[in-house]
Amino acid sequence: MPQPDGLRIVYIVDEDVPVREALARLIDSSGLEARPCTSLEEFLQQAHGIRVACVLLDVTRAHDSDLALRTALQSVASKLPVIGLSSSDDPAVRHLARDLGVRSFFQKPVDGAALLDSIDWLMHGDWRGKGGAAPGAPPLSRA
């Protein structure tokens, strides 16, 4: 369902309840609307008609999803900015993040201020352009 102009939504896709709740509190406290999702499937069911939003995605959970779900996520990532989160920061995880269309990547635990800066940049900037990583986020190409 399309949302009204000006409403800024951040979907949080993470199966880890404490992480999801902490991110939701951070997002809500910044004046954005957090919409926590327990799974990639739940998020994709809500993703239709979204115009102004950002997605925080636990990249490792996306890896565990089947090919159809990953393909659907890639389609969403072409329309909405996706920020990848992971407790692991290794080349395989970064490669997966790039394949999924992630625009910015953070290792857990996440620096809240840097994450909010990245969300702001992605929601207001030309995130589809060829610019660098969002502020505060390490580049995805780091080996």
TrEMBL record:
InterPro entries: Bact_response_regulator, CheY-like_superfamily, Sig_transdc_resp-reg_receiver. Keywords: Phosphoprotein. Gene3D superfamilies: 3.40.50.2300. Residues 9-123 form the Response regulatory domain. The modification 4-aspartylphosphate is found at D58. SMART domains: REC. This is Response regulator. It comes from Variovorax dokdonensis.
